[in-house]
Amino acid sequence: MPFNEKIVARVLAHVSEWPGTSAKKMFGGVCHMIQGNMFCGVYKEYLILRLGEPDAAKARRPGVSVRS
After folding, report:
1. How much is the pTM?
2. Please, which residues have CB within 8 angstroms of residue 30's CB and are 6 or more apart in sequence?
3. pLDDT, position 57
4. Cβ-based neighbour number of residue 48 at 10 Å
């Protein structure tokens, strides 16, 4: 299944003006990077965020999967 281009467009609309950001097709999806480090991605119908432990704990709610 290809990645959801609508989600990719929504992310780009928010981060395209941030200095040092880029998007790269990887792992069957699109990864968004800041200064070469992935901070989020889109895979299939999923928005994937890279969060530290404190923020991951805050993100827990129905419909959200938190993995280490």
Report:
1. 0.80
2. 3, 8, 23, 24, 41, 42
3. 87
4. 17
